[in-house]
Amino acid sequence: MLEERFNRIPLFIRPQGFFQTNPQVAEGLYGTAQQWVKDLPVNKLWDLFCGVGGFGLHCAKALQEKNPDIELTGIEIAPSAIYCAGLSAQKCGLKKVNFQSLDAANFALNQDENKPDLVIVNPPRRGIGKPLAQFLNQMQPQFILYSSCNAISMTKDLLELTHYQLQKIQLFDMFPHTSHYEVLTLLIKR
């Protein structure tokens, strides 16, 4: 296992695990997410498709400055990524953190209570899909932070989120000299 640090947040990489391949751009991506959410009134957040916890840990750490009782739930299908995310949370000193190895869409669709204030999604290229987008639209967390490597699937998902307006958007050139990129958006409930 390798330890990498992004904005003083330790993230761990295991063999065959997904990780952003451009560390400088990834640090900017996570740092931007951190800056966008740090002053939002958030007590509870979900990080769906969390991988090793990069987005959730960055956001929880920023929110912890104003609210030491911030609650983070991170969901990722890969058990090795969840192990790494838990290790990072311990090193960050975050207390109310729950990382679970589950299918992110199934987890969210089966939640009746415990509504978060902020939902972070960083799905694979296919996007979050219509059922999860419609569920989030119905559940109506105050904020959604959506990171995507595919603006086409993200656009389809955003069209389903009719109760939200786009507050911020930024493109990150994750793979210079290619057509690949990362897009970060912040959505706010209307």
From TrEMBL:
Among PROSITE patterns, the record links this protein to:
SAM_MT_RNA_M5U (PS51687), TRMA_1 (PS01230), TRMA_2 (PS01231)
- The UniProt record gives the binding positions of S-adenosyl-L-methionine as 20, 49, 76, 122
| Keyword Transferase found | yes
| Record carries keyword Hydrolase | no
Catalytic residues of the enzyme: 149
UniProt cross-references to CDD domains, sorted A to Z: AdoMet_MTases
Q: Which domain of life is it from?
A: Bacteria
Q: Which SUPFAM superfamilies match?
A: S-adenosyl-L-methionine-dependent methyltransferases
Q: Which UniProt keywords apply?
A: Methyltransferase, S-adenosyl-L-methionine, Transferase
Q: Which family is it part of?
A: Belongs to the class I-like SAM-binding methyltransferase superfamily. RNA M5U methyltransferase family.
Name of the protein in question: 23S rRNA (Uracil-5-)-methyltransferase RumB
